[in-house]
Amino acid sequence: MKRLLSILLCFVSLSAFANEPANEASKGEGFNPGEMILEHIGDSHEWHLATLGEGEHATHVSVPLPIIAYQPTKGLSMFSGGQLAHGHSHNGLKLEEDKLVAEDGSKVYDFSITKNTASLLFSAVLMLLVFTAVARGYKKNRGRAPSGLQSFFEPVIIFIRDEIAKKNIGPKYERYMPYLLTAFFFIWFNNLLGLMPGAANLSGNIAVTLVLAVMTLVITLASSNKYYWAHIFATPGVPKPLLPIMIVVEFLGIFTKPFSLMIRLFANITAGHIVVLSFISLVFIFKSWAVAPVTLAFGLFINILELLVAILQAFIFTLLTAMYIGGAVEEHHDADMQIGYNEDETAPHAAH
Amino acid sequence: MPAFLNPELGLIFWQLVIFLLVLFLLGKFAWRPILLSLKEREDTIDNALRMADQAKIEMQQLKAGNEKLLADARHERDRMMQEATVMANQHRDAEKARATEEANRIISQAREAIQQEKNAALAEVKNTAAKLSVDIAERILRRELAEPAAQTQLVDSYLKDVNLN
Fold it and tell me: What are the tens digits of pLDDT across the range B79-137?
């Protein structure tokens, strides 16, 4: 872990210097941690790996990524991001502070394979490889004990099925299992990948969490029954004069729930990255190796904490999604106060 | 607003497309087989446990049946032994009674035969004695006619001859 962190430190140190724009050379070797951190948590049109050398003679080691742009006037254009390096323009397009703009100022829809998109593709391929391997394990060890990768993921899958889906959704849980499992492992894998040195901050990107949250919202609304809507527009047990207020509150609740999902995941992961990077930045702020023990210790601590947060956030997102779906498919006989379903239907409600 | 708070259209598009693709592919090629296999295995284990319980109960029933059979057999054996003893006793008693009867019959027959023999012997003794008496009397009568003295002597001699044997 320490080695990993020192590698991370190297990368950060290199890219930190690379970050200095040439026109700020007047400030000397000034280091701007805020800018460095924002660059790290943000998206980019190139995958920057390292910078060798300093100042204007620096050699940037980065992987150019494909640019895909749609312009209403010109149509679709696709070319390597290397064409746009160092402020060059290609096909009437150029990068302005890593934002794709048209030279003539017309509207550009940017569908480029950015660093985050590349990372997304990588994690998608990784997930497909891992879980088809797990599925193969089930075919191979049919009716027998799990082995290898399969035995690592089986408890997690069973946990999601039994503790998240069954408990919160109820007897109809099976239909939602693919989404819950995919969301859980997508978030977990990308949280962990994001902690790798030089990796993209995909699960801490608001566009990604936005899509996940909207999917949860769509699934919740698509599976909602009349009791769900009755609860929103005629909340049981609320006096009539209060209903107009309650309807507004409950109706907003439909959207605030997924909104909180979006913000929670985005903020937790991004904040974790910011804290780790901040500790590492201390070395460059103090320009002394003496602070390294402190930054290493704190950086290591936060990084390990982030490993926990990675699975915790995946769990929370999945759990809350299951609870929202559970609220939407819940049958009337479950009392209002009790979201969820007990497999043992005969158990007294007091036992909850 | 900082750039990182602003969701980019491109990433939204790719995230939606790729996530849905992953969801579809994993759902078809991973989650479905995995969840089915898990369910199948759980059912198998459940069934195996249930069957083991059933087998245990059956074993107990079988054991109880065997014990009952054994007890029955023991009981039957005792009954048969008892019966055999009773029958043997009866048989022995009957045999004994028959033997006694036979013995008694033989004894009485013997007794009768002895009685007859004795009677015959006595009759013969009586005849012989009568004949002797007559004989003696005849001789005496004959002698008396000659000499009385000699008569007595003669009787005596005769009587000596008649040694009753």
Answer: 999 999 999 999 999 999 999 999 999 999 999 999 999 999 999 999 988 888 888 88
pLDDT at res. A126: 96
Cβ neighbours of A118 (radius 10 Å) = 19
- Cβ of A270 within 8 Å of Cβ of B4? The answer is yes
Examine the domain organization and report whether A106 and A129 are in the same domain.
Answer: no
Give a yes or no: residue A183 inside a domain: yes
Task: Say yes or no: A122 contacts chain B, CB-CB below 8 A.
Answer: no
Cβ–Cβ of B23/A178 closer than 8 Å?
yes
Could you say which residues from 286 to 345 on chain A have a Cβ atom under 8 Å away from some Cβ of chain B?
A: none
In a domain, A89, yes or no: yes
Per-residue pLDDT, B1: 62
User: If you average pLDDT over every residue of chain A, what do you get?
Assistant: 82
Positive/negative CA dihedral, A30, A52, A66, A262 = negative
- At residue A69, the 3 state secondary structure works out as strand
Query: Residue B26 and residue A206: Cβ atoms within 8 Å?
Result: no
**Could you tell me if the ipTM is greater than 0.90?**
no
Query: Is the CB of residue A152 less than 8 Å away from at least one CB of chain B?
Result: no
> Based on the domain organization, do A76 and A132 belong to the same domain?
no
**Residue A72 belongs to what domain range?**
66-112
Residue at a domain's end among A112, A147, A168: A112
The residue type found at A148 is G
Chain B residue numbers with beta carbons less than 8 Å from the beta carbon of A112 are 10
Number of domains in chain A: 2
- How many angstroms from the chain centroid is the CA of residue A302? 18
Say if residues A40 and A273 touch (Cβ distance below 8 Å): yes
- Which of A36, A70, A99, A120 best probes binding to B when mutated, by most B CB atoms within 10 angstroms? A120
CB-based burial label for A26 (10 Å; 0-12, 13-18, 19+): exposed
Interchain contact A42–B (C-beta under 8 A): yes
